[in-house]
Amino acid sequence: MEQRLSMVTLSVQDVAETRRFFEQGLGWKANNFESDDIVFFQTGGSVLAIYSRQALERDLGQAATQSLGAMTIAWNARTESEVDEVFSQAMRAGAISVSRPARAFWGGYSSHVEIPGGHLLEIAYNPFWSIDDAGNVTIPEGT
Amino acid sequence: MEQRLSMVTLSVQDVAETRRFFEQGLGWKANNFESDDIVFFQTGGSVLAIYSRQALERDLGQAATQSLGAMTIAWNARTESEVDEVFSQAMRAGAISVSRPARAFWGGYSSHVEIPGGHLLEIAYNPFWSIDDAGNVTIPEGT
To answer: Coil, strand or helix: which one is B16?
Structure first.
């Protein structure tokens, strides 16, 4: 089993609301697949999906419980000032501040917001991880 | 804000248990960073983290509710038979079957398992999405 992930799916009550956050708020571009139940964003070599909770429960044949923080997604900035900028952008786009940008105990600079739909997004700068021109993150060996 | 994700974090009660599932069960290789609270797996251009719920709650300053299905991660196979193989491998590694491999309404072949730690992993074949040699998934334009 190759060591990779193909997709992360955020299950939300209102797909259109969360889609607006990413498209209009953050300037991301969704795939032009037309569905009220799901929207896809290409994120490097994997995909972020926003999926209606009702549809997910139909797939699973069981209830999916709401959560905040049981799983989080993170977006790493290239600099600390970019953390501040993207945090502000997320606020303007309708996110709720959970922890404002601040020095983190692990040596980085980090913030958390709750995005529309009720999931946690960390916006952080990690001085120990490299980010290439394409945005790929690499954990250095031996750290 | 570049359109990408840097990290997906699964918050779990027992980091060692979930780490064993990925390392010993699925054959993945963790970064050799030593901590009881967190473990990192390089997954292409992003990172999968397994993080102790207690530590996450300390970071957030608030409780993180348990969930099953509010967010899911997916691993796409290259063939239907590979879905069967990886599903079986996950079962042997201690996952719980939520939906066995079967034809999905969207035209693919899909299964869901609950991994140790209580998160949902979809194991699927999607004939409409391409996977390159490095494992990167691409959504075709216009679909």
So the answer is: helix
Instruction: Kindly identify which residue of chain A lies nearest to residue B126, measuring between CA atoms.
Output: A6
B47: contact with A, CB 8 A cutoff: yes
Residue range A68-143 in CATH 3.10.180.10: yes
Q: Which chain A residue's Cα is nearest to B123?
A: A6
Quick check: A16 and A23 in contact, CB under 8 A?
no
Architecture of domain B67-143: Roll (3.10)
ipTM of the complex: 0.82
- Collect all residues of chain A within an 8 Å Cβ-Cβ radius of residue B40: 139
Q: Which amino acid is at A119?
A: H
Task: For chain A, give every residue range classified as CATH 3.10.180.10.
Answer: 1-66, 68-143
CATH number of the A1-66 domain: 3.10.180.10
In this complex, the residue of A64, A131, A134 whose CB is nearest that of residue B68 is A64
**Per-residue pLDDT tens digits for B25-51:** 889 999 877 788 999 999 988 889 998
CA B15 to chain centre: 14
Q: Which two tokens stand for residue A88?
A: 């502000």
Task: Find chain B residues with C-beta within 8 A of A142's C-beta.
Answer: 32
Q: Is the CB of residue B41 less than 8 Å away from at least one CB of chain A?
A: yes
Q: Give chain B's radius of gyration (CA, Å).
A: 16
- Other CB atoms within 10 A of residue A43 CB: 22
pTM of structure: 0.83
